[in-house]
Amino acid sequence: MREFVDGSGAAWMAGVRERPGPDYKGRYFLFLEPGGGGDGLALLDVRWNSERTARRTLETMSDVELRRRLRSALGRGAGAR
Known about the structure:
Elements (H helix, E strand, L loop, with lengths): L1 E4 L5 E8 L9 E7 L6 E8 L2 H10 L2 H14 L5
Antiparallel strand pairs: 1-2, 2-3, 3-4
């Protein structure tokens, strides 16, 4: 997991979740949740084939990229999981 702050200074956690199923392709996806608790946002369009790759990518993502993904998810009303 990785902590970052949004444009208004609120803390968020970026992590990886797994969608179970027989197909391994795109099984892991980006999940953003508020630092103070509450419903998180599943970004099912940001996917990886392995947890190792997902975590490595998450570690190298910039805060700017994470904020951009968060704005996008909030703007389109991504569902909580």
